Protein backbone atom coordinates (compact mmCIF):
# COMPACT_ATOMS: atom_id res chain seq x y z
CA UNK A 1 0.00 0.00 0.00
CA UNK A 2 1.31 3.44 -0.91
CA UNK A 3 2.05 5.75 1.99
CA UNK A 4 -0.02 8.53 0.45
CA UNK A 5 -2.65 7.72 -2.12
CA UNK A 6 -4.76 10.15 -4.12
CA UNK A 7 -7.74 9.95 -6.44
CA UNK A 8 -6.52 8.99 -9.88
CA UNK A 9 -7.16 11.76 -12.37
CA UNK A 10 -7.59 13.59 -14.49
CA UNK A 11 -10.60 15.59 -13.40
CA UNK A 12 -12.16 17.59 -16.24
CA UNK A 13 -14.68 20.14 -15.01
CA UNK A 14 -16.38 23.25 -16.42
CA UNK A 15 -15.71 26.70 -15.03
CA UNK A 16 -17.75 27.37 -11.93
CA UNK A 17 -17.94 23.73 -10.89
CA UNK A 18 -17.14 22.42 -7.42
CA UNK A 19 -14.56 19.67 -7.33
CA UNK A 20 -13.27 17.54 -4.47
CA UNK A 21 -10.01 15.63 -4.19
CA UNK A 22 -9.46 12.80 -1.76
CA UNK A 23 -6.31 11.48 -0.20
CA UNK A 24 -5.53 8.69 2.25
CA UNK A 25 -2.34 8.09 4.21
CA UNK A 26 -1.13 4.87 5.79
CA UNK A 27 1.06 6.00 8.70
CA UNK A 28 -1.00 6.84 11.77
CA UNK A 29 2.01 8.72 13.20
CA UNK A 30 1.66 11.39 10.51
CA UNK A 31 1.53 14.82 12.07
CA UNK A 32 1.42 17.49 9.39
CA UNK A 33 -0.60 17.62 6.22
CA UNK A 34 -0.50 19.86 3.19
CA UNK A 35 -1.87 20.40 -0.26
CA UNK A 36 0.67 21.54 -2.85
CA UNK A 37 -0.12 22.73 -6.34
CA UNK A 38 2.11 21.93 -9.31
CA UNK A 39 1.68 23.59 -12.68
CA UNK A 40 2.86 21.77 -15.77
CA UNK A 41 6.65 21.49 -15.84
CA UNK A 42 6.99 23.74 -12.79
CA UNK A 43 7.97 23.24 -9.18
CA UNK A 44 5.39 22.40 -6.47
CA UNK A 45 4.13 25.30 -4.39
CA UNK A 46 2.27 25.17 -1.11
CA UNK A 47 -1.45 25.70 -1.58
CA UNK A 48 -2.48 25.28 2.02
CA UNK A 49 -1.74 23.42 5.21
CA UNK A 50 -4.46 21.15 6.58
CA UNK A 51 -5.46 21.52 10.19
CA UNK A 52 -7.40 19.12 12.39
CA UNK A 53 -10.35 21.46 12.63
CA UNK A 54 -10.45 21.99 8.89
CA UNK A 55 -9.54 25.25 7.25
CA UNK A 56 -10.63 27.47 4.42
CA UNK A 57 -8.78 29.88 2.18
CA UNK A 58 -11.11 31.65 -0.19
CA UNK A 59 -12.55 29.08 -2.57
CA UNK A 60 -10.43 26.28 -1.12
CA UNK A 61 -11.41 24.15 1.87
CA UNK A 62 -9.24 21.43 3.37
CA UNK A 63 -10.44 18.76 5.77
CA UNK A 64 -8.60 16.18 7.86
CA UNK A 65 -10.03 13.04 9.42
CA UNK A 66 -7.36 11.46 11.58
CA UNK A 67 -9.49 8.47 12.56
CA UNK A 68 -9.97 7.51 8.91
CA UNK A 69 -6.51 8.80 7.86
CA UNK A 70 -8.16 10.84 5.16
CA UNK A 71 -7.57 14.32 3.76
CA UNK A 72 -9.70 16.24 1.31
CA UNK A 73 -9.52 19.41 -0.74
CA UNK A 74 -12.64 21.15 -2.03
CA UNK A 75 -12.45 23.80 -4.71
CA UNK A 76 -15.57 25.89 -5.23
CA UNK A 77 -16.37 28.03 -8.27
CA UNK A 78 -13.48 26.58 -10.32
CA UNK A 79 -11.47 28.99 -12.46
CA UNK A 80 -9.45 28.24 -15.57
CA UNK A 81 -6.37 29.19 -13.54
CA UNK A 82 -7.06 26.34 -11.11
CA UNK A 83 -5.93 23.87 -13.79
CA UNK A 84 -2.91 22.12 -12.30
CA UNK A 85 -1.88 18.96 -10.48
CA UNK A 86 -2.75 18.88 -6.78
CA UNK A 87 -0.37 16.98 -4.52
CA UNK A 88 -1.39 15.59 -1.15
CA UNK A 89 1.60 15.75 1.19
CA UNK A 90 2.18 14.25 4.62
CA UNK A 91 4.95 14.82 7.13
CA UNK A 92 5.81 12.23 9.74
CA UNK A 93 7.54 14.26 12.41
CA UNK A 94 9.74 11.48 13.68
CA UNK A 95 11.41 11.27 10.27
CA UNK A 96 13.29 14.56 10.31
CA UNK A 97 10.91 16.69 8.33
CA UNK A 98 10.70 14.43 5.31
CA UNK A 99 7.61 14.98 3.24
CA UNK A 100 5.78 12.07 1.63
CA UNK A 101 4.05 13.04 -1.60
CA UNK A 102 1.06 11.48 -3.24
CA UNK A 103 1.21 10.92 -6.96
CA UNK A 104 -0.99 13.94 -7.62
CA UNK A 105 -4.41 14.49 -9.11
CA UNK A 106 -4.63 16.50 -12.31
CA UNK A 107 -7.39 19.06 -12.66
CA UNK A 108 -8.40 20.60 -15.96
CA UNK A 109 -10.98 23.40 -15.84
CA UNK A 110 -12.62 24.08 -19.19
CA UNK A 111 -14.48 27.21 -20.37
CA UNK B 1 15.48 37.14 -2.28
CA UNK B 2 16.08 34.72 -5.14
CA UNK B 3 14.66 31.87 -3.03
CA UNK B 4 15.86 28.46 -4.16
CA UNK B 5 17.92 28.38 -7.34
CA UNK B 6 19.01 25.34 -9.34
CA UNK B 7 21.45 24.89 -12.20
CA UNK B 8 21.45 23.65 -14.87
CA UNK B 9 17.83 23.78 -16.05
CA UNK B 10 18.34 20.92 -18.49
CA UNK B 11 21.10 18.45 -19.21
CA UNK B 12 21.68 15.42 -21.40
CA UNK B 13 24.19 12.87 -20.13
CA UNK B 14 25.62 9.73 -21.63
CA UNK B 15 25.55 6.53 -19.61
CA UNK B 16 28.47 6.45 -17.21
CA UNK B 17 29.09 10.20 -17.17
CA UNK B 18 29.03 12.15 -13.95
CA UNK B 19 27.64 15.54 -13.06
CA UNK B 20 26.71 17.78 -10.18
CA UNK B 21 23.33 19.44 -9.84
CA UNK B 22 23.66 22.71 -8.03
CA UNK B 23 21.21 24.07 -5.49
CA UNK B 24 21.42 27.25 -3.45
CA UNK B 25 19.04 29.12 -1.17
CA UNK B 26 19.30 32.61 0.30
CA UNK B 27 16.60 32.32 2.96
CA UNK B 28 18.95 31.08 5.71
CA UNK B 29 17.01 27.82 5.90
CA UNK B 30 18.47 25.01 7.96
CA UNK B 31 16.80 22.14 6.12
CA UNK B 32 17.44 21.30 2.48
CA UNK B 33 16.17 18.42 0.35
CA UNK B 34 16.64 16.75 -3.00
CA UNK B 35 13.70 15.07 -4.71
CA UNK B 36 13.21 13.37 -8.03
CA UNK B 37 9.95 13.27 -9.92
CA UNK B 38 9.28 10.71 -12.62
CA UNK B 39 6.43 11.27 -15.12
CA UNK B 40 3.00 10.90 -13.51
CA UNK B 41 4.51 10.21 -10.12
CA UNK B 42 4.88 12.07 -6.88
CA UNK B 43 8.18 13.37 -5.63
CA UNK B 44 10.56 10.94 -3.97
CA UNK B 45 13.16 12.10 -1.47
CA UNK B 46 16.76 11.33 -2.42
CA UNK B 47 18.77 13.01 0.34
CA UNK B 48 18.20 15.70 2.90
CA UNK B 49 20.21 17.86 5.27
CA UNK B 50 19.28 19.40 8.59
CA UNK B 51 22.22 21.79 8.62
CA UNK B 52 25.74 22.39 7.38
CA UNK B 53 27.83 19.25 7.69
CA UNK B 54 24.84 16.94 8.24
CA UNK B 55 23.22 14.85 5.53
CA UNK B 56 21.03 11.77 5.53
CA UNK B 57 19.49 9.36 3.05
CA UNK B 58 15.95 9.61 1.87
CA UNK B 59 13.81 7.04 0.11
CA UNK B 60 15.87 6.63 -3.10
CA UNK B 61 19.56 7.50 -2.41
CA UNK B 62 21.29 4.86 -4.54
CA UNK B 63 23.41 6.35 -7.31
CA UNK B 64 23.62 9.78 -5.70
CA UNK B 65 25.79 11.65 -3.22
CA UNK B 66 25.43 14.97 -1.48
CA UNK B 67 27.42 17.37 0.65
CA UNK B 68 26.47 20.39 2.75
CA UNK B 69 29.52 22.50 3.49
CA UNK B 70 27.53 25.73 3.87
CA UNK B 71 24.01 26.63 4.90
CA UNK B 72 23.30 28.02 1.44
CA UNK B 73 24.45 25.23 -0.87
CA UNK B 74 23.40 21.60 -1.26
CA UNK B 75 24.82 20.02 -4.43
CA UNK B 76 23.70 16.60 -5.66
CA UNK B 77 26.28 14.40 -7.37
CA UNK B 78 25.61 11.64 -9.91
CA UNK B 79 28.74 9.56 -10.28
CA UNK B 80 27.81 7.03 -13.00
CA UNK B 81 24.71 8.16 -14.82
CA UNK B 82 22.19 5.47 -15.73
CA UNK B 83 19.00 5.69 -17.84
CA UNK B 84 16.98 5.06 -14.66
CA UNK B 85 18.17 8.45 -13.42
CA UNK B 86 16.33 10.26 -16.19
CA UNK B 87 13.97 12.46 -14.21
CA UNK B 88 13.22 15.95 -13.02
CA UNK B 89 15.18 16.88 -9.92
CA UNK B 90 13.86 19.41 -7.42
CA UNK B 91 15.77 20.98 -4.59
CA UNK B 92 13.82 22.41 -1.66
CA UNK B 93 14.49 24.14 1.62
CA UNK B 94 12.64 24.90 4.82
CA UNK B 95 13.42 26.73 8.03
CA UNK B 96 12.68 23.79 10.28
CA UNK B 97 11.50 20.24 10.29
CA UNK B 98 8.37 20.07 8.21
CA UNK B 99 5.93 22.19 10.15
CA UNK B 100 7.20 24.96 7.91
CA UNK B 101 6.56 25.26 4.21
CA UNK B 102 9.12 23.72 1.89
CA UNK B 103 10.18 26.06 -0.90
CA UNK B 104 11.17 24.43 -4.15
CA UNK B 105 13.60 25.42 -6.86
CA UNK B 106 12.54 25.41 -10.53
CA UNK B 107 13.96 21.96 -11.16
CA UNK B 108 16.63 20.36 -13.35
CA UNK B 109 15.52 18.09 -16.18
CA UNK B 110 18.02 15.31 -16.72
CA UNK B 111 18.04 12.91 -19.65
CA UNK B 112 20.47 10.00 -19.59
CA UNK B 113 21.01 8.28 -22.93
β-strand number of chain B: 11
| Helix-residue proportion of chain A | under 10%
Average predicted confidence as pLDDT of chain B: 93
Largest sheet of chain B: 7 strands, mixed
What oligomeric state do the depicted chains represent? heterodimer
Major sheet of chain A: 6 strands, mixed
Mind telling me the C-alpha Rg of chain B?
Answer: 13 Å
Broad shape of chain A: globular
Structural class of chain B: mainly beta
- Residue share in helices of chain B? under 10%
Q: Which two chains form the greatest contact, residue counts included?
A: A-B, 21 and 25 residues
Spatial separation of the terminal alpha carbons of chain A = 37 Å
Please give a structural write-up.
The complex is a heterodimer of chains A (111) and B (113). Chain A is mainly beta and 111 residues long. Chain A has strands at 4-6, 11-14, 19-25, 32-38, 44-50, 55-57, 60-65, 70-75, 84-91, 99-101, 105-110. In chain A, strand 7 and strand 8 (70-75) form a beta hairpin. By secondary structure, chain B is mainly β. The termini of chain B are far apart. The model of chain B has no long low-confidence stretch (mean pLDDT 93). Classes of the chains: A mainly beta (111), B mainly beta (113). Chains A and B meet through strand 5 of A and strand 4 and strand 5 of B.
Main traits of this protein?
heterodimer, A: 111 residues, mainly beta, 5-stranded antiparallel β-sheet, 11 strands, 54% strand, B: 113 residues, 7-stranded mixed β-sheet, 4-stranded antiparallel β-sheet, globular
Amino acid sequence: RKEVEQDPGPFNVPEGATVAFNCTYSNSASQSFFWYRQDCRKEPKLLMSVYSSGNEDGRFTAQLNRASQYISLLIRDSKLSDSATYLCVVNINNQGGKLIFGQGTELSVKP
Amino acid sequence: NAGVTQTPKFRILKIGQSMTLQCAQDMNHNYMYWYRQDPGMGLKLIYYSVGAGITDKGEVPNGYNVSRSTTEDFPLRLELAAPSQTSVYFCASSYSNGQETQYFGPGTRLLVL
